[in-house]
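Title: Comparing notes on inverse folding

I've been comparing how different people in this forum approach sequence design from structure. To keep things fair, I'm posting one structure and asking everyone to reply with a full sequence. Here's the target:
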């Protein structure tokens, strides 16, 4: 794309990651290049390792490169790597930045499977893991140690929707040489630009909004500077971390419409969240774009919008009634993940784990991922389901 005039976000999504085809006229979509073995004309070239030279399929083809270019452009990154899933992106990044004997600080609202990796795998490698209040902000300074190597964030938390004070934490960490990482899946690199706020690594489960169709698993690690990007790229190369060109193609295709999907899902989710405010069955709506959310000011400062994911806390009811409510829903699928074109709902209490502060909600927590259906139809479906709580 021409750089003489800044392009809008939607324009960039459409045109980024579209390399010139080497064989014939430009294609709207890049070709899917499948390869394990890459042939060389001369034996001496096998070990030349020239810049940007492809020498084995594990390092990717033009298809994966196109997706990397698109996500790097979206995140404002110096470089990035792809992983087979969002969880793999989190676990790989943590293994790169942490070292034996180090101290890792983690937001207490972090994604459950990431927490499982930390507690069951990383903790056994001699790394001390300490969870902190997601709302600690600058007060996190009290938990820093001389051997703190990294701070892992998730803003907002994908169940309970707390927002981390990213600029405050980034500034504090940078002054001490501490690496910062964030699971940025909720903001998708569209509504939140953590690298511009000083965070070192922005991690995506591209499975969700980037793909948009609930049919591909993919993760991405975007780095703020070239040195950080090289650390991740070297680890991925040495560790054999790779993704298929077919999956990369599907994620890139999904990204072309990600902006319009997110904006539609943002408005639908806000409409439904506001509707929940007036329901007697609901104790609290957890959506950072609502003025009553405890972290609304931080959201307003750092985010340009909100995605389709939010939660509600019901007034106290037996678990069997929560299940009856969910089972009554017809338009909401009951399944994990989010960010696709279809709406989803899950009961979250069984997966909430807290150690910094106890989770003390008044009633059960239910999370909704709002898809592309008509809002009135979704509200009617929820309203019918709420009858099961009586």
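Reply #1:
Here's my take.
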């Amino acid at each position: 794309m021409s750089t003489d005039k800044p392009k809008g976000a939607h324009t960039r999504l459409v045109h980024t990651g579209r390399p010139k085809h080497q064989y014939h006229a430009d294609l709207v979509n890049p070709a899917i290049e499948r390869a394990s073995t890459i042939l060389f004309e001369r034996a001496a070239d096998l070990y030349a390792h020239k810049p940007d030279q492809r020498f084995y399929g594990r390092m990717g083809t033009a298809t994966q490169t196109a997706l990397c270019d698109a996500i790097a452009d979206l995140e404002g990154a110096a470089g990035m790597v792809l992983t087979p899933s969002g969880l793999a992106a989190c676990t790989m990044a943590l293994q790169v930045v942490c070292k034996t004997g180090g101290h890792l600080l983690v937001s207490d609202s972090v994604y459950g499977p990431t927490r499982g990796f930390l507690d069951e795998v990383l903790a056994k490698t001699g790394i001390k893991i300490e969870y902190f209040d997601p709302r600690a902000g600058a007060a996190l300074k009290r938990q820093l140690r001389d051997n703190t190597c990294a701070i892992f964030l998730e803003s907002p938390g994908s169940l309970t929707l707390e927002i981390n004070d990213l600029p405050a934490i980034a500034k504090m960490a940078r002054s001490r040489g501490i690496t910062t990482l964030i699971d940025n899946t909720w903001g998708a690199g569209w509504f939140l630009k953590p690298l511009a706020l000083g965070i070192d690594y922005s991690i995506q489960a591209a499975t969700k909004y980037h793909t948009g169709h609930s049919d591909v698993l993919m993760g991405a690690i975007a780095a703020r500077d070239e040195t950080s990007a090289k650390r991740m790229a070297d680890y991925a190369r040495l560790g054999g971390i790779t993704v298929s060109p077919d999956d990369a193609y599907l994620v890139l295709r999904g990204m072309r419409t990600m902006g319009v999907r997110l904006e539609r899902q943002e408005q639908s989710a806000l409409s439904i969240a506001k509707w929940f405010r007036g329901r007697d069955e609901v104790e609290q709506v957890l959506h950072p774009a609502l003025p009553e959310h405890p972290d609304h000011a931080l959201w307003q400062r750092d985010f340009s919008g909100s995605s389709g994911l939010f939660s509600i806390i019901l007034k106290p009811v037996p678990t069997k009634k929560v299940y009856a409510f969910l089972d009554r829903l017809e338009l909401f699928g009951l399944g994990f993940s989010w960010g696709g074109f279809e709406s989803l709902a899950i009961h979250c209490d069984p997966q909430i784990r807290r150690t910094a502060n106890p989770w003390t909600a008044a009633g059960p927590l239910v999370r909704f991922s709002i898809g592309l259906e008509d809002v009135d139809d979704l509200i009617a479906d929820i309203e019918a389901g709420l009858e099961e709580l009586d």
